[in-house]
Design goal:
- The complex is a heterodimer.
- Chain A has one domain (3-91).
- Helix content of chain A is 82%, strand content 2%.
- Chain A is mainly alpha-helical.
- By secondary structure, chain B is of the alpha/beta class.
- Helices cover 45% and strands 16% of the residues of chain B.
- The radius of gyration of chain B is 26 Å and the shape is elongated.
- The two termini of chain B are 36 Å apart.
- Classes of the chains: A mainly alpha, B alpha/beta.
- Chains A and B meet through α1, β1, α2 and α3 of A and β2, α1, α2, α3 and α4 of B.
């Protein structure tokens, strides 16, 4: 277990952020439905707000990926006891 | 569906496709959330806490926020599902309204109008409000003008009565506005026209005062045609205490005739639409005339109790300053009636029974006012909402059972409400006379 493994998890999470943005694109297309009325306008406004929220969600997932990358860096940075850290690293699955 | 004065156009196929898209997007987000959870809860990742606990804690906090925080994946998934449901409800409403319009056109052609609520369907902007009106027609259909129930529509929305409120909320205009517009559109015809004139016949008989809310509903049930009453029957009960003081109970049935062509029975679709639009009808006049006929005097307390349309009429009369100037309405009991929008004064004590799986009380798309003098009892009648049958969930028998629970309840709000009913109820020395009144709408 080392920083590389954690970075792989971070990459996986970054991929999920891309998925969220892709879903936001699909959600935006729901507004293309042929529907014109006051209710339709309200619905589209709600939809646009949801798309913006999804982009924020994607950003949150990006932040999680970045935090995992930082964690990977922290694992690889020698701490106060490199020997102990090395032993622990070897003991982890 | 397209057209209409408000510039409404909708392709139901598009709406349904968009609803599916949103539903799929919500499901996709849930899958994303599960994979995020898989990373966050990975034992190997958690074990790295021994190497860098602070950075792991920071990463876990970020993962948790992305997963379930206020800007998290799960909340977005839930909102998408709600948007999808609303869109499905709107599409369902437009489609049902279209079908109703076709059916009405056919029925008019063949001279047997059976689904009066379909009248609203010509008004595209009002299409979805028309669906609730159509559902009114789908519930207790019996009698010479009985129309075919919209089985699937009623069944689906009965199973999702809460969804109906969202659906009504999501569409343009309110149900009262829709009802007003329906009256405007039909103004050139005789349909839904109400001249407000009634003729009464009555018979009196000694009776026992009611013992509680369940007895009030029994009295309403006795006004129904299938209970042997004449069409257009209401009951006025004079309860006199040992000191000779009188109180009045009026029991008003639900809709008995679903034809949009007003006939002799004032408790009909015309009264439904008029009440929703806040306009007086022959049914309102029948109640006032019955109280006059019985000899009710100004200042004597009056309790108005009604089921379905009867509850709407009771609420409408209690909210009508002209009626209150003649009669002192102190109490209103409604069962299965959409009454949230009636401006009943705060000094009138209201008890509303609403089955959570009954679509009819949800037609106004709003919850009843939450105030000291207005108690709403809302509970499911059926064991399984999926199996909800509108005839059961809206039927007066189910409401009578619920009323019996109210009578027996120790809930402080209900106990306080019942305490105010004393002048109308059976007690030592109290006697009662029932006036069974049959109202007929005068034909032009």
């Amino acid at each position: 277990m080392d920083g590389t493994w954690v970075r792989q998890r971070a990459g996986e999470v970054a991929g999920l952020a891309e998925e969220v943005r892709s879903i936001a694109d699909r959600v935006r297309r729901a507004g293309d439905a042929e529907w014109r009325s006051t209710a339709a306008a309200a619905f589209r406004a709600g939809l646009e707000a949801e798309v913006r929220r999804l982009l924020v969600v994607g950003g949150e997932v990006d932040e999680a990926a970045a935090a995992l990358r930082a964690h990977a860096d922290a694992i690889e940075t020698p701490g106060p006891g490199p020997l102990v850290a090395g032993l622990l690293r070897g003991a982890l699955p | 569906m397209r057209g209409g004065v408000g510039g409404v156009a909708a392709r139901t196929e598009d709406l349904e496709r968009a609803a599916r898209l949103l539903g799929d997007a919500g499901a996709g987000l849930v899958a994303t959330a599960m994979r995020l959870l898989g990373v966050a809860a990975d034992p190997s990742l958690l074990a790295t806490a021994t190497l860098a606990p602070v950075s792991l804690a920071a990463a876990e906090a970020r993962l948790a926020g992305a997963l379930a925080g206020s800007a998290g994946v799960l909340r977005s998934a839930a909102r998408l599902e709600l948007l999808s449901l609303r869109l499905r409800a709107a599409a369902f409403g437009y489609r049902t309204a279209d079908e109703g319009a076709e059916r009405l056109a056919h029925d008019v052609d063949t001279g047997t109008v059976v689904l009066g609520a379909g009248l609203a369907v010509g008004l595209a902007p009002l299409a979805v409000p028309a669906v609730p009106l159509g559902l009114l027609a789908a519930v207790p259909l019996r009698g010479p003008h009985a129309g075919p129930p919209i089985g699937m529509a009623a069944g689906l929305l009965a199973a999702h009565a809460g969804l109906l409120e969202h659906a009504v909320d999501a569409v343009p205009g309110t149900v009262p506005q829709a009802a007003t517009a329906i009256l405007a559109v039909t103004s050139g015809s005789s349909l839904l026209r109400d001249n407000g004139t009634v003729a009464l016949s009555a018979s009196a008989q000694p009776a026992m005062p009611p013992t509680g809310v369940a007895d009030l509903l029994s009295g309403i049930a006795a006004c129904r045609v299938d209970a042997g009453a004449q069409p257009g029957t209401i009951r006025v009960e004079a309860v006199r205490d040992a000191d000779g003081r009188r109180a009045w109970v009026v029991e008003i049935p639900g809709t008995q005739d679903w034809s949009p062509a007003p006939g002799g029975n004032p408790f009909d679709l015309t009264a439904d639409v008029a009440s929703m639009a806040g306009r007086p009808s022959a049914a309102d006049h029948a109640v006032a005339a019955a109280l006059d006929l019985a000899g009710a005097r100004r200042g004597e307390p009056v309790l108005l109790a009604g089921h379905s349309l009867g509850g709407m009429l009771a609420a409408g009369l209690a909210a009508d300053p002209a009626f209150r100037a003649r009669f002192r309405v102190t109490h209103v009991v409604t069962a299965g009636s959409p009454v949230a929008g009636y401006p009943i004064p705060a000094d009138v004590q209201v008890l509303s029974l609403e089955h959570a799986d009954d679509v009819v009380p949800a037609l106004d798309g709003a919850r009843n006012p939450d105030r000291a003098g207005w108690v709403t009892v809302r509970q499911p009648v059926s064991g399984s909402p999926i199996a909800a049958d509108p005839l059961v969930t809206h039927g007066i028998e189910g409401y009578r059972a619920t009323a019996a629970l109210v009578d027996a309840s120790a809930d402080p709000s209900l106990a306080a409400w019942r305490a105010g009913l004393v002048p109308f109820l059976r007690r030592p020395g109290a006697t009662a006379v029932d006036l069974v009144v049959t109202a007929r709408r005068a034909q032009p």
